[in-house]
Amino acid sequence: MTTITSRENPAVRRAVKLMTSPRERRKSGLIICEGARLCCDAAQSGVQGEELFCTAEAMEKYADYVEKLRERTKAAYIITEDIAKKIGDTDSPQGVFLVARAPGVENDLSGLKQTGQYVLLEGLQDPSNVGTVFRTAEALGVSGVIVTENSASCFSPKALRAGMGAMFRIPIYRTDDAPAAMRAAAARCMRPMAAVPREDASDVTAIQFFSGAIMCIGNEGNGLTRELIEACPEKVTIPMNGRAESLNAATAAAILMWEMMRGYIR
Fold this sequence. Notes:
By secondary structure, the protein is of the alpha/beta class. It folds into two domains: 2-101, CATH 3.30.1330.30; 109-262, Alpha/beta knot. Helices cover 38% and strands 21% of the residues. The protein is built from eleven helices and twelve strands. The strands form two sheets. The chain has a seven-stranded parallel sheet, with helices on both faces. A five-stranded mixed sheet has the order 1-4-3-5-2, with helices on both faces. The protein is elongated and about 60 Å long.
């Protein structure tokens, strides 16, 4: 492994840019993972590792992880603690970073399985919420996650950490016209559902789910757009008996996905 001691090293500067710049990630097609477990999850899930950065302390502390990462990465560097702090996005970096090719994202929603159960995220802005939804979706066995163009990137450092590697293992779809996509899905006999806090919406706990459902979840502050709500033949809501008026987007998504998968007739 090559040793790097300068914070101005070109490889370090690239890593920092990937950590801080969504534009750089989009332009290069690269992502950066932070933390031994997340980096190893990425590599073991088939993501192509480009550059591995480790401090000497991390190489000893996470020896098993680092060894697996070195086998799956094109270039590896030993860095100082000072450089780790420069690259890191957390207060106390573990000292392990992986620059990798971003996993594939499908832009054609015609590939959705008619018997699958999906969640669609429209305009979520908090990357931690996005990551948490992915983690929950994977845990519950959801068929895939659809994200709109105006949602926070599922490959941002915060989303990746919150997702605990789920983005590397669950199918991801992207759409720039969610209403049209849901109308097309309904035409294929799938079942788009708009999650809304409305009295006239169906209680999600009373719904019989069957194959082909797509649960649409909206922006943290404003919810789903009117256009997407109108494009969904069904409106569902979470019954709330307490005094709280709303739920965190990721919490609401977890409840909705649980109900969708609990009652799913396979």
